[in-house]
Amino acid sequence: MSTLIRAALGGALSIGVTMGAASAQDGYRLPPQEIVDIVDAPNAPYTTLSPNKRHLLLLHREGLPPISEMARPMERLAGLRLDAETNGRHGPRSVIGLSVIDLETGEETTISTPDDVGLSGFTWSPDGSRAAFLVTDEDSIGVWVADMERAQAREIIDEGVNAVFSALDWMSDSETLLVTLTSDERGPRPERARVPAGPVIQEAAGYEAPVRTYQDLLSDADDAALFAWLAESQIVSVDVTARRLRVREIGEPGLYYAVDPAPGGEYLLVESLEQPFSYDVPWSRFAETSEVWTLDGDLVAEIASHDIADGVPIGGVIEGRRSITWQDSAAARLVWAEALDGGDPRVETDERDSAWALEAPFDGEPMEIARFEDRYYGTQFTSEGQIGIATEYDRDTRVVRSWLVDFAASGAEPRLLNERSIQDNYADPGSPLSVRNAYGRSVAAVVDGAMYFTGNGASADGDRPFLSRVDFDTLDTEILWRNSGESYERVIDVLTDDASVFLTSYEDPTTPPNVQRHEGETVTRITHFENPHPQLNDIRKELITYEREDGVPLSATLYLPADYEEGDTLPLLIWAYPLEYNSASDAGQVRGSQYRFSRVAGTSPRFMVTQGYALLENATMPIVGDDPLTVNDTFVDQLVLSAEAAIADSVARGYGDGERVAVAGHSYGAFMTAHLLAGSDLFRAGIARSGAYNRTLTPFGFQSERRTYWEAPESYFRLSPFMHANDIDEPMLMIHGQMDNNSGTYPIQSERMFAAVKGNAGTARLVMLPYESHGYRARESVLHVLAESIDWLDTYVKPDEPVVPHTPDQGEREVE
């Protein structure tokens, strides 16, 4: 097929772009073979440590699924994607095999499981002796349990598990499983009527009901009937130690989305959906009821009942009892939160939330435990009495506080454990390590008067993970261990009470994460996962910092090809994702580590380094403003400042020429890409994946924008690249999954943006990926995205002279 070529105009090369349209429907494409080999390289297993810290379970993964697996029939209902054949979630399998490592002997043993099935839903028994998991085949889901000491697994339930919601949970005895099965009483699958019974009608009842742009919602009565059919389940208990299957039904079938046994094992907290459903919000906002049952299914008490939550303010919470859970440190005690501001974050108040508790038998008056200045986000209980670590967060100042709160009836005053901006990574104290208490519940460990914390250890030199000891009385902190050297190592857990023996995950630029055991000065490798792509070991990687014109510090990870020689200038790809910050100091903090293993997989921009490009990955694009309501008013200006600084630094360091530069990003990064192409002339081309471009289609806020379209129409216009499509005079490749279910980034965003650029004589290419969602999973899709991206950059960015796309004159056409 010929390509129109015109003479250089003004020193620029002009190339006919009609080639793209002519070859657009040729099917899936492949990138260079070296990239195909890397994409197909085997994945290392996932690892999970048993609660008793004696075994390490390895979950072995398969490669990228074929598009045929993604193409299985899907039901898009109530914000979920379901497989009606299996009665579970829709999606390709990931884990296909198991093995276990005995941490005393270091011996690894394969656990036999069925062939050609997917394994998922892994959950440890409280004592760590067993792990239960789901086994999914073509048309059903069953339950298996693996015994760690014997390194053997056996089938418990062969089929009929309902995995629309949570399907598995252990009782505290570590011998009994709670399982949800498909109901025998639900009848045949509802058929969609060929002739509708009537129109679909919705009403507004005169109260505020702002909702985000959710997708996969129920659309009519047929959808509602099918969702109810799929969601209806029967709760059962199963003794996993019995030689013969003994399934005991608990209660009647219902629309149960959570079943949680009390720590003491005498009650169940059962949460269920109520009909009629809503067509405006996903299942998580449907009417619901929370009840306490006996183990025989008898109702003990109704704890809460909520109508459809379609009137919750943006960023707000429901009124009444919410986030109802068992107190992990008591046999049968419920805790929950209640809003003091009507659930509306716009209300000015000194106290926004409260925490409550109610003892069994749940017929008395609940006790208020504490009040919080800001929104309460739950409690992690500790192994010390009834003390928990309660967290509150102020969405305006971004300040997060952690308190030690005694939930006992005569508890002491709360003590402030930590207070910081959630964006201040340097001050992050990390998270407490946990143990299983007498009830088998996971709680923060308090051992000999101290807690142990582990965290990323962000610093000006990059992340340096740590292990610390925090005195429970004085809250004084002592750092016991910190990662150092040219590697990245983080603590998984401690194996002894004094933390003298602990497990870490170790990696360096050429070694993938592996589990290691530290005992004094002795370090022992537990796993031996190999580098899946050793051919990339010589790629250069460096965490760099620079500064933009207004003084805000910036950072990025710089990748250079293995054969790069000092003084050479390379075409540059800047990959970024903008984030909002309240202060320049927080925005300028260094995040990440240059010593981590550079896994190149999926649609990673790191593949471009193999094709001769320099890459600035995760180049910071902070949007700084102390007023969260107006921070986005300078969004585009701040993007341009950050981009200018990144390009100027590339020239100063000598690897960039300041001309051959492209920008790219995914989701909000695609939104950023379109803005930079419309609002500057810094780039030769851009790649925007799974983006949103018209903010009038997300009128009730987006990302951190709190104002609605009607409160700030000028800002929504300015923040919509679609409105400035006539200013995009650089080539833009847009890629989008045809079944994107992410809020705000539905496929029409890219379709209309492409039409806008095309209609204004711009240069663009739109690639819609069948069966893909917000991210891309199928092997064919991943390889095609890489092929398209390489070709786009090679055409418009790599040449020494800029390429000016040429549109044939009227009557001129391509000739095959």
Topology (SSEs and partners):
Layout (H helix, E strand, L loop, with lengths): L4 E5 L2 E5 L1 H5 L10 H7 L6 E4 L5 E7 L5 H4 L4 E3 L2 E4 L4 E2 L5 E8 L5 E4 L6 E7 L5 E7 L4 E7 L4 E6 L10 E3 L5 E7 L38 H11 L1 E7 L7 E8 L1 E6 L5 E7 L14 E7 L4 E8 L14 E6 L6 E7 L13 E7 L7 E6 L2 E7 L5 E7 L5 E8 L8 E7 L9 E2 L1 E3 L5 E3 L5 E6 L10 E6 L5 E6 L5 E7 L6 E8 L2 E9 L2 E4 L14 E8 L5 E8 L9 E7 L2 E3 L2 H4 L26 E6 L2 E3 L10 H19 L2 E11 L1 H12 L5 E5 L23 H6 L13 E6 L10 H12 L4 E6 L9 H18 L6 E4 L10
Parallel strand pairs: 2-50, 42-44, 42-46, 43-45, 46-47, 47-48, 48-49
Antiparallel strand pairs: 1-2, 3-4, 4-8, 5-6, 6-7, 8-9, 10-11, 11-12, 12-13, 14-15, 15-16, 16-17, 18-19, 19-20, 20-21, 22-23, 23-24, 24-25, 26-27, 27-28, 28-29, 30-33, 31-32, 33-34, 34-35, 36-37, 37-38, 38-39, 40-41, 41-44
Helix pairs in contact: 6-7
3D architecture notes:
The protein has 816 residues and is mostly beta strands. Among the domains are: 5-30 and 538-806, 3-Layer(aba) Sandwich (Rossmann fold), CATH 3.40.50; 316-423, no CATH class; 447-532, no CATH class. The chain is built from ten helices and 50 strands. The strands form 13 sheets. The chain has an eight-stranded mixed β-sheet, with helices on both faces. It has a four-stranded antiparallel β-sheet with strand order 3-4-8-9, with no helix packed on it. α6 (635-653) crosses α7 (668-679). The longest helix has 19 residues, at 635-653.
